Backbone:
């Protein structure tokens, strides 16, 4: 039986603490769209995406109103584009990117992810063409996201790909220099990329996934922070972990409900729920502020890595119990330029790249949304990617790099 | 199917009356009401049966929240499912 306290708690979470369903992502396999002719291939891709996802946005919006939970994004992820590009005789990756954009626009989806290549062990047909086309594709399209998996614990790191990616990131920034270098913000370089991640920019629909699937990403750093704030100052760390677990459980249950309902209404199998504390620049929606609520002076000081490890661990444990299938990245994201607390800490000089790298060893992703000086050479970017990938490869975890060379700025 | 209506705001005359009139207008049967007034902050939770609702649920919810705005109150109408999912195992 529901009681008033529980009801008010849910209302407060949604309306005061920015709890939301960050994304409903429909994963669509494009493997059956392969064709020797590039035009036919693009037509098949467009038709399949539109056929499967035409009701996605509408369903999301109806559910948002009926359940009373904000569902921020409705997105699509597709099979890594390099895999279908391989089948064409005259490969034109940019054309494929534009097709993806057109399909996403027709469906009304915010983003489409999957302009991707998996090259952890080497380049197959289509992979090089796709990677080389990334800067142009990201500059010519607005809602296509790209990712490249350059390493895995089993296969090691593909250093040729690492070298390429440094140049690709720089070029993507240069081509979009007139638009705040937006290109590389839509490009993620992964080690151990998850195949069912609903969060952009790294979402793609892995080759081992079913034909179509619904994945849901839930967020809510504000809720966790508020729960810790309410608990007061005299909690010990066990209690802190318990509060986080309990909150994560509740948030994930909501994600599970939305995922099941979306899957039923769209008649598409339910994939996974990904509970990731993904900050937004909105006040109170910050992961850094959770860490500070736990007792850190500022994010970046000594103790940050330990606090983040505790947070990430507790979030995962709470989430696992709440959902029938937990997947994706699940944990805490630390995108520096999207998190008010991180921005403040970086401006104070407390948060440095070295500390961030240490934090990525325990959080759910990696170096995310970091601006670097515009004159950073491609080789240095590659070296940064290699460092980050090494952490992921050795520690059996997903790591990612999404850095933005701010062209023209230092 | 049941929905939960929550009303939070400054206490004024006739809040309960107006909300329940709206419910009866649209054939939402009130199953349970709890309300509390703390100093002059009013909080009410109403559980209503929406099987017989004569308009779509989303319209009903919009009308209530609009009515809330006019009275300087926050009215949220949500499906019971969401609370069940979150608070019961």
Residues:
């Amino acid at each position: 039986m529901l009681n008033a306290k529980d009801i008010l708690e849910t209302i407060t979470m949604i309306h005061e603490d920015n709890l939301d369903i960050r994304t409903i992502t429909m994963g669509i396999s494009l493997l059956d769209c392969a064709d020797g002719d590039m035009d036919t291939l693009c037509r098949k891709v467009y038709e399949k995406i539109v056929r499967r996802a035409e009701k996605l946005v509408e369903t999301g919006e109806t559910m948002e109103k009926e359940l009373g939970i904000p569902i921020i994004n409705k997105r699509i992820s597709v099979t890594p584009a390099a895999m279908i590009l391989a089948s064409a005789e005259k490969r034109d990756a940019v054309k494929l990117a534009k097709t993806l954009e057109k399909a996403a626009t027709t469906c009304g989806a915010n983003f489409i992810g999957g302009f991707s290549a998996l090259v952890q062990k080497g380049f197959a047909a289509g992979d090089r063409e796709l990677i080389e086309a990334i800067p142009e594709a990201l500059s010519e399209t607005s809602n296509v996201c790209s990712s490249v998996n350059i390493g895995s614990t089993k296969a090691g790191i593909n250093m040729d790909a690492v070298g390429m990616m440094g140049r690709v990131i720089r070029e993507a920034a240069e081509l979009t220099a007139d638009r705040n270098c937006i290109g590389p913000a839509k490009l993620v370089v992964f080690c151990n990329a998850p195949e069912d991640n609903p969060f952009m920019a790294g979402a793609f629909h892995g080759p081992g996934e079913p034909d179509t699937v619904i994945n849901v990403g839930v967020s809510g750093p504000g809720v966790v922070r508020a729960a810790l704030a309410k608990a007061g100052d005299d909690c010990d760390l066990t209690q802190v972990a318990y509060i986080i677990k309990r909150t994560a459980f509740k948030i994930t249950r909501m994600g599970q409900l939305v995922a099941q309902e979306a899957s039923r209404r769209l008649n598409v199998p339910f994939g996974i729920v990904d509970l990731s504390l993904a900050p937004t620049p909105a006040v109170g929606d910050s992961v850094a502020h959770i860490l500070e609520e736990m007792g850190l002076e500022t994010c970046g000081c000594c103790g940050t890595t330990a606090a983040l490890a505790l947070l990430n661990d507790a979030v995962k444990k709470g989430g696992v119990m709440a959902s029938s299938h937990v997947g994706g990245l699940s944990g805490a994201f630390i995108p520096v330029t999207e998190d008010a607390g991180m921005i403040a800490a970086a401006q104070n000089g407390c948060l440095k790249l070295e500390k961030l790298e240490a934090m990525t060893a325990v959080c759910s992703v990696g170096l995310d949304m970091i601006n670097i000086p515009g004159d950073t050479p491609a080789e240095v970017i590659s070296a940064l990617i290699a460092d980050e990938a090494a952490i992921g490869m050795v520690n059996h975890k997903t790591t990612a790099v999404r850095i933005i060379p701010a062209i023209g700025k230092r | 199917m049941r929905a939960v209506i929550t009303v939070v705001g400054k206490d004024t005359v006739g809040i309960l009356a107006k909300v329940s009139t709206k419910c009866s207008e649209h054939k939402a049967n009130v199953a349970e009401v709890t309300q509390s007034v703390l100093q002059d902050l009013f909080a009410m939770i109403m559980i209503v049966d929406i099987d017989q609702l004569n308009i779509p649920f989303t319209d009903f919810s919009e009308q209530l929240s609009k009515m809330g705005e006019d009275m300087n109150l926050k009215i949220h109408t949500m499906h019971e499912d969401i609370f069940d999912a979150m608070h019961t195992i």
